[in-house]
Amino acid sequence: KQEVTQIPAALSVPEGENLVLNCSFTDSAIYNLQWFRQDPGKGLTSLLLIQSSQREQTSGRLNASLDKSSGRSTLYIAASQPGDSATYLCAVLFSGGYNKLIFGAGTRLAVHP
Amino acid sequence: EPEVTQTPSHQVTQMGQEVILRCVPISNHLYFYWYRQILGQKVEFLVSFYNNEISEKSEIFDDQFSVERPDGSNFTLKIRSTKLEDSAMYFCASSGGYSRRELFFGEGSRLTVL
Question: Among residues B35, B22, B47, B48, which one has the least CA distance to residue B89?
Answer without folding.
Answer: B35
